[in-house]
Amino acid sequence: MAILVVLMLILGIAGGSDAIWCICRNDASDNALQSALDYACGHGGDCSPISANGACYLPNSLLAHCSYATNSYFQKNNRAPGTCDFSGTATNTTVDPSSSGCQYPSDNSVASPPANTGISAGPTASNPPPPPFTPFSSAGDRPTARAGAPSLSIAIAVLALLVA
């Protein structure tokens, strides 16, 4: 029984993944998507891959470009709470949104340095930035245990030892 518990613990730790991305919600309005895109590109997100001829230009849609930009911003900010909200326009996912030829960064070390590509002129009077981000601005922003996370495996192993 103890060997089984140790094996479960080892497999849980080895199988855990910290990969998380930020994507724009497909039910967000075009104005909200554009505002999030402008903010992310203007505040440190690397938007060069979504410029014309960039690796992530296709699909050429506001939703796809918004997702790439907000994810870049999110990763550049070390996945800090509240940096993937954009006033409810974006959300976290553990499903890799990368596609053929377009790799979404999944951590800060992969994200390219910020570039001023001219994709967005930034906020204007007619297109202001989203409100400042606050940690845990919505229930969906709160960190939760991910399936396969080591803490869950440890809890199961301890519980199994106590029952045995």
TrEMBL record:
How does this protein sit in the membrane?
Lipid-anchor; GPI-anchor
Cellular component GO terms, alphabetically?
plasma membrane; plasmodesma; side of membrane
Q: Where in the cell is it found?
A: Cell membrane
- Which segments of the protein form a coiled coil according to its record? none
Location of the X8 domain: 20-104
Its principal location?
Answer: membrane
Q: Where is this region: Disordered?
A: 96-144
Where does the record place Polar residues bias? 96-119
Q: Does the keyword Cell division apply?
A: no
Which Pfam families does UniProt cross-reference here? X8
Q: InterPro entries, per this entry?
A: X8 (IPR012946), X8_dom_prot (IPR044788)
Instruction: Check the record and name the SMART domains matching this protein.
Output: X8
Q: Where is the signal peptide?
A: 1-19
| Keywords recorded for this protein, A-Z | Cell membrane, Disulfide bond, Glycoprotein, GPI-anchor, Lipoprotein, Membrane, Signal
Q: What PANTHER family has UniProt attached to this entry? A: BETA-1,3 GLUCANASE, PLASMODESMATA CALLOSE-BINDING PROTEIN 3
- Listed name of the protein: X8 domain-containing protein
Species name: Spirodela intermedia (Intermediate duckweed)
